[in-house]
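WP5 quarterly update. Target: DUF4867 domain-containing protein. Source organism: Lacrimispora amygdalina. Length: 208 aa.
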Amino acid sequence: MGIEIKPVTDPAFGAYGKIVTGYEIGDLLKKMEETPLPEDVIYVASVQELEELSVSKEMEKNLYGQMPIQVGFCNGHNKKLNAAEYHRNSEINIAATDLVLILGKQQDITPEYTYDSGNMEAFLIPRGTVVEVYATTLHYAPCHTQEGGFRCVVILPQGTNTDLTPLDKTVNKEDKLLFAKNKWLIGHEEGGLPKEAYIGITGENLSI
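Structure tokens (predicted):
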């Protein structure tokens, strides 16, 4: 059984994020048509051509309060949860195609750093929709709704999801989840993740 997919306008989405309005994203969507769309999933954290657009600079000044950002993309074909990650800040996603986000709450991670996938909800994000995904929201790669795959703009503070400098020591168990800069990840054993990934998702590897 696949997970129920709710519209992003459903009140339930309010626990995970909000729809962002007021930005003219036409140029961004047009540029996204030129980005690769593989049979698996590709993530590129920073793309100069996207970051140079006037709307990206406007989002940096307004949405991120003049903090430096990176504008990249996550594209491809995916139907499964596989993992859940979180950051210390909100993430902006812009649906360049219709796509589905499977979301959960950091507050539901147990003291032992396990997480039950049964707590998650799925939301359809229509093409052209801008959403803020809150810092406390668990998320991972979007899922496609059409055989052509999905394209999604991903905006985060500069340096997020880039290669991690090895820690000198671990202070507490959460440090084991630190998978990249500003990225804490809990994987599912069926998620096909690298061997260094922390595996802690219990329950089904959700599929749409």
